[in-house]
Amino acid sequence: MLKLVPREIDRSKDSESVDQPASKEELLGRIAEGDQVAFGLLYDEISPRVLGLIRRLLVDHAQSEEVTQEVFLEIWQSATRYEPSKGGASTWILTMAHRRAVDRIRSSQSSRDRDVKIGIRDYVSDYDNVSETVEITIEHERVKEAMSQLTELQRQAVTLAYYGGYSHSEVATLLSVPIGTVKTRLRDGMIRLRDELGVAS
Questions:
Q1: How much is the pTM?
Q2: Ramachandran assignment for 164, one of left (phi > 0), alpha (psi -120 to 50 degrees), beta (any other)
Q3: Which of 38, 56, 181, 196 could make an S-S bridge to 30, C-beta 3.0–4.6 Å?
Q4: Are the beta carbons of 161 and 171 closer than 8 angstroms?
Q5: 160, 158, 142, 155: which is closest to 196 by C-alpha?
Q6: Residue 9, domain member (yes or no)
Q7: CA distance 71 to 12
Q8: Which of 107, 122, 137 finishes a domain?
Q9: 3-state secondary structure string, 92-129?
Q10: What is the pLDDT of residues 25-60, one digit of tens each?
């Protein structure tokens, strides 16, 4: 019986906040002042949307959870920079999440490129593979040179689709452009690459 009394008191004290929950904008304002309770409320409210957006871009669940944690750490550290006059809290947070996910994709791509270069450099076999290594290196340099002839927009699309392994719709989401635009950039980019490499159509 005694244990029920404080619960009833707590409910009556919180009834107003239950009827009128704080908006995300209000929670960010409180977080900017170091309010950990407000941070927990905001996390509970919007973390599923943040994780969902990031997972659609990264696919890998473990990486998606890591990036989600990075987003909320950034929210805690930079809530003072949020300006309600420039847009809603959800937009501010989801834009941050999208940027973090794209940064992770680019970082992963750079890491894969480094691994390939190191793999080629360090590859050693039991037979004399000097001519094979030279051929691979020359081909790699030819592709690199051909890629440099593409426009920045074409290079982004080709890198994500053919090096990153993303579908056309995923590339469209990552670059925030219509899927038709992605297909056009890929088509034009591949035609340019074919011409630069001297590959017969």
A1: 0.48
A2: alpha
A3: 38
A4: yes
A5: 142
A6: no
A7: 35
A8: 122
A9: HHHHHHHHHHHHHHHHHHHHHHHHHHHHHHHCCCCCCC
A10: 999 999 999 999 999 999 999 999 999 989 888 888
Q: Which residue among 74, 97, 122 closes a domain? A: 122
**Residue 84 belongs to domain spanning:** 21-122
Q: Is 46 helix (H, G, I), strand (E, B) or coil?
A: helix
Token match 């977080």: residue? Answer: 31
Does residue 6 fall inside a structural domain? no
Tell me the per-residue pLDDT of 155-178, one tens digit each, with 9 for 90 and over: 888 878 776 677 888 888 888 889
Q: Which residue has the tokens 């949307």?
A: 49
Inter-CA distances, 141 with 92, 121, 156, Å: 41, 14, 18
Contacts of residue 188, defined as CB under 8 A and 6 or more positions apart, other chains included, come to: 154
CB 84 within 8 A of CB 25: yes
Could you tell me if residue 131 is inside a domain?
A: yes
Nearest Cα residue to 113 out of 140, 138, 142: 140
Distance CA 38, CA 24 (A): 9
Q: Which residue has the tokens 């994500």?
A: 160
CA pair distance 83, 158, nearest whole angstrom: 36
